[in-house]
Design goal:
- By secondary structure, this protein is α/β, with parallel strands linked by helices.
- It has a single domain, classed as 3-Layer(aba) Sandwich (Rossmann fold), CATH 3.40.50.300.
- It is 63% helix and 12% strand.
- It contains eight helices and five strands; from the N terminus they run E-H-E-H-H-H-E-H-E-H-H-E-H.
- The protein has a five-stranded parallel β-sheet with strand order 2-3-1-4-5.
- The longest helix has 26 residues.
- The two termini are 22 Å apart.
- The C terminus is likely disordered.
């Protein structure tokens, strides 16, 4: 089973991904890590590489191709990334796509705690990053990252523990897999 988990920074998606991958006993792939590796390969820091990606659509295309190659390799994995579910579905790869979000304030507080920074500074940076990514995703893909229509499950983590979210994802993903298996049998 391929499960993709997307969402904005600070939503809790990485924490939930780790829990889901552990429960499934499968590999966890972090798209942000692949992006970081690409920056290192080019000898550029992450912030500069992000700016380059705004100008050079080939960077996103290369990232997408790498993600798709990893997803094709394995039928059982958890992929974490902003557009992963939508992009893999566009390429007709079967995935259970989850989107996790939280209020902007909670996300900023989580990041500030994790990065040991001031909440106001994180909030400003968060807004700038999300504007940049939204512009990039709309320009390059025609995708609004906050569009719920491509996701199988949309969860607000503002007041929900990661373990509860992981349980919900596991339950819904298994149910979707069972429903899909039934549909395949009926169509034969």
């Amino acid at each position: 089973m391929r499960i993709t988990i997307s969402g904005p920074p600070g939503s809790g998606k990485t924490t939930v991904c780790k829990l889901v991958a552990e429960r499934l006993g499968c590999e966890l792939v972090l798209v942000g890590q692949i992006f970081r590796e690409m920056a290192v390969e080019r000898g550029v820091d992450l912030e500069a590489f992000g700016r380059l990606a705004e100008e050079d659509k080939n960077i996103d295309k290369e990232l997408d191709d790498r993600i798709f190659a990893v997803a094709l390799e394995k039928e059982s994995l958890v992929l974490e990334g902003r557009l992963t579910g939508t992009l893999l579905k566009r390429r007709k790869l079967p995935v259970f796509a989850v989107y996790i979000t939280a209020s902007e304030e909670v996300r900023a507080e989580r990041i500030a705690r994790r990065e040991e920074e001031e909440v106001d500074a994180v909030l400003k940076d968060l807004r700038m990053r999300e504007r940049s990514e939204k512009k990039r995703y709309l320009d390059f893909y025609g995708i609004d990252p906050s569009d719920r229509s491509t996701y199988d499950l949309w969860i607000d983590s503002t007041n929900t523990a990661p373990e509860v979210i992981a349980d919900l994802i596991m339950d819904r993903a298994h149910k979707a897999a069972e429903d899909n298996a039934c549909q395949v049998k009926k169509s034969k």
